[in-house]
TrEMBL record:
Name of one Pfam family that matches: Methyltr_RsmB-F
Start and end residues of each SAM-dependent MTase RsmB/NOP-type domain: 26-314
Annotated keywords: Cytoplasm, Methyltransferase, RNA-binding, S-adenosyl-L-methionine, Transferase
GO biological process entries: methylation
Lineage: Bacteria, Pseudomonadati, Pseudomonadota, Betaproteobacteria, Neisseriales
Protein name per its UniProtKB record: RsmB/NOP family class I SAM-dependent RNA methyltransferase
Protein EC: 2.1.1.-
UniProt entry tagged with the keyword Cytoplasm: yes
Similarity comment: Belongs to the class I-like SAM-binding methyltransferase superfamily. RsmB/NOP family.
Gene3D superfamilies in alphabetical order: Sun protein, domain 3, Vaccinia Virus protein VP39
GTP-binding listed as a keyword: no
Residues annotated as the enzyme's active site: 241 (nucleophile)
Length: 315
């Protein structure tokens, strides 16, 4: 299969983000078939029962040490997995491993009031619902109509009965719902650099440095909206599937400047071997030193690239 070269501007920036000893694995990750990741949906079944069912059907399940509900199967078994009763019944959900990290680090609890501010297609939303055991209040916001209905269908199939979906722009939520939520997930719309596939030119055709800048502008407004909607003492998990510092540390630096001493960047409760500390400088600009507590997830043979940062509203 022919390989397409990654965008030149992206390639020029990457060595300033990724350490040289990690760069070969990162570059190789854009052109390989990774194992298919799945999450057991505890709203409908136990991990033991679904794993036993899949093993009996011949699936080669691999467990992950950081989650008792995350598993993978070889890429070659993807189609067969989507034809199982467990898949159709919503007892498992195909969700890449990096995506599963965000709700785990946010750690929503049963009975809390939680917001997913950019929720479609619903994988993280349904994961949050399962972590909350369908107890509490979970609001899921999506502004694009067709994605909104896909979100609703996925949450229905997953049995996320506590979730209420809202077709609206996330940038307006803060003014409508000030200081309402205990925890907020903002997996922000981004330039999707982690989804580049060198075998699929379409996966990169949308990308440009202008696109990165446009995304960063929108992300800053979404972050401010989320921050306004967060209760004092609440926690906000910000994530993207972009490498770009403008969309990650840069967007967060703007919020930190605005929020002043009411915001704290928290240490992540745990880290994996492919987590890098957040950057504290980029392109001649300094970022708050506390952003080193964020994590840039480096893609490898099993995980996609990702960015994660956990904030606390002190008052």
């Amino acid at each position: 299969m022919n390989q397409t070269v990654l965008p030149p501007s992206f390639l020029e920036r990457l060595p300033a983000i990724v350490p040289p000893e990690r760069l070969p694995v990162v570059l190789a990750s854009f052109g390989i078939d990774k194992p298919v990741a799945l999450r057991i949906n505890t709203l409908k079944a136990s991990a033991d029962s679904v794993c036993a069912e899949l093993a009996a059907a011949g699936f080669q399940l691999k467990s992950l040490p950081w989650s008792g509900l995350a598993f993978s199967v070889p890429f070659e078994q993807k189609r067969a997995l989507t034809e199982t009763a467990a898949f159709y019944d919503g007892r498992l959900y195909l969700q890449n491993l990096s995506s599963q990290l965000a709700p785990l680090l946010l750690d929503p609890q049963p009975g809390e009031t939680v917001l997913d501010l950019a929720a479609a297609p619903g994988g993280k939303t349904s994961q949050i619902a399962a972590m909350m055991a369908n107890q509490g209040r979970l609001s899921a916001v999506e502004p694009v109509r067709d994605r909104f209905f896909r979100l609703k269908a996925n949450l229905d199939q997953q049995g996320a009965t506590l979730a209420k979906c809202y077709l609206m722009d996330g940038r307006a939520v803060g003014s409508k719902c000030p200081a309402m939520f205990d925890r907020i997930l903002l997996d922000a719309p981004c330039s999707s650099e982690a989804r580049f596939d060198t075998r699929d030119p379409e996966s990169m055709s949308h990308w440009s440095l202008k696109k990165v800048g446009e995304c960063a502008h929108k992300q800053k407004r979404l972050l401010q909206s989320a921050w306004t909607a967060l209760k004092p003492g609440g926690r906000l998990l910000y994530s993207t599937c972009s490498f770009a510092p403008e969309e990650n540390e840069g967007a967060l630096a703007t919020l930190l400047k605005h929020a002043g001493d009411e915001v704290e960047v928290l240490d992540l409760p745990w880290r994996l071997d492919n987590f890098l500390p957040g950057l504290t400088a980029w392109d001649g600009k300094l970022f708050p030193a506390s952003l080193s507590r964020a994590a840039r997830v480096l893609p490898d043979e099993s995980m996609d690239g990702f960015f994660l940062c956990l904030l606390k509203k002190k008052r």
